[in-house]
Amino acid sequence: MTYEEYLDEVTTLITEHYDLSDEDAIKHVMRAQAAGFFSLHDDLPEMRTHERAEQDAKTVFEQRNKSRPHEPKRGGPTKRGG
Predict the structure, then answer these.
(1) Spatial separation of the C-alpha atoms in residues 75 and 33, rounded to whole Å
(2) pTM of whole model > 0.70?
């Protein structure tokens, strides 16, 4: 399969196995892609198998919250300078 088809397969598997919306699955796959997770897949077509897509879907899903650092909530008390 092509690189784009592979990313589509990973995205589809995430929606099927982990009950995420298409939009959320796409967001997580795109974030992983931007971080270089799929770089070798682009260079090595033999990595683009259904079995590998299953593994990568699991990894991307498990890493989905780790790729975004915690951001403190806004809107709390503020200090005023005097």
Answers:
(1) 32
(2) yes
